[in-house]
Amino acid sequence: MRLGVFLAGLLVLWLPLAGLIYLAIAQWGGSPDRVQNTASIATLLLLYGEFIWLIRQWGQHVYGRSDLLWRYGLEFTRRNGLEALTGVAVGLLSLFALFLTQGWLGWLVWKPPAPDLVRVILEGLLVSLGIGFAEELFFRGWLLGELEQDYPAVVALWSNAAIFAALHFIKPLEELRRTVITFPALLMLGATFVWAKRSRSNWEGGFYRGRLGLPMGLHAGLVWGYYIINVGQLVGYTGRVPAWVTGIDHNPLAGVMGFVFLCGLLWILRSLAQKKPLPGVD
Q1: Which of 85, 159, 173, 212 could make an S-S bridge to 73, C-beta 3.0–4.6 Å?
Q2: Helix pair 117-136, 213-231: axis angle to 10 deg
Q3: Angle between helices 183-197 and 213-231 (to 10 degrees)
Q4: Contact (CB, 8 A) for 180 and 169
Q5: pTM of the entire structure?
Q6: What is the per-residue pLDDT across 165-212, written as a single tens digit (0 to 9) for each?
Q7: What single DSSP character describes residue 242?
Q8: Angle at CA 170, nearest 5°, toward 17 and 74?
């Protein structure tokens, strides 16, 4: 019921203003694609601004706390920053390792880098950091924190991962049918981010801190690596194996190889996690 009330309140705040923003941008003119892209960016920024504001109100009026974002793991400290950098490095190197393995197996070939590769790398870094921050604050911050209040750690983990995976399938029915095979990989990905948050580094003096630096960085690193290779057009597939093996729509995590890779990454992070009961927000 708490989740439903919070999301309903967020939509009530967001939808009217998002509609006004879209109409205002449409009045400026331009191609439909440009209007759509500009409106999407503006309304998403508005959504996350309202989300952070609402969490503050939620903490004060529901829990009687003013530090709920901090308790969800959002803190701007040196340690959290180092954990974020570690996550970026692990995610980026892991994804390139996956591509290198597929190249070694003869499933893809590497192409010469394009002249604008530096621009793609920098652009991808900004995009990936934004996605990692926003999605992890929502899923592994607020949502996981609320689930851990009422359910055992394992139930909260897989519920969080399932919701994370399911929300990636808000798309037309035909597209849903074509890509539903990627659900297990997204489920493993969501669980991997939860275990990243539960790593040993998030325990201090026997207390669970649950900082978001590592999952945010890991998420950003995976997105960044995919952006560099996909947008930079650095690989071409040989067609020796079906797309569901290498990844649907050239997404390396949306195939059998990606699923195996994520299971391995999940196992490593789980083995590094502290085996203790996890308290909720309270």
Answers
A1: 212
A2: 150
A3: 140
A4: yes
A5: 0.88
A6: 999 888 788 888 888 888 888 999 999 999 999 876 555 555 556 789
A7: -
A8: 65
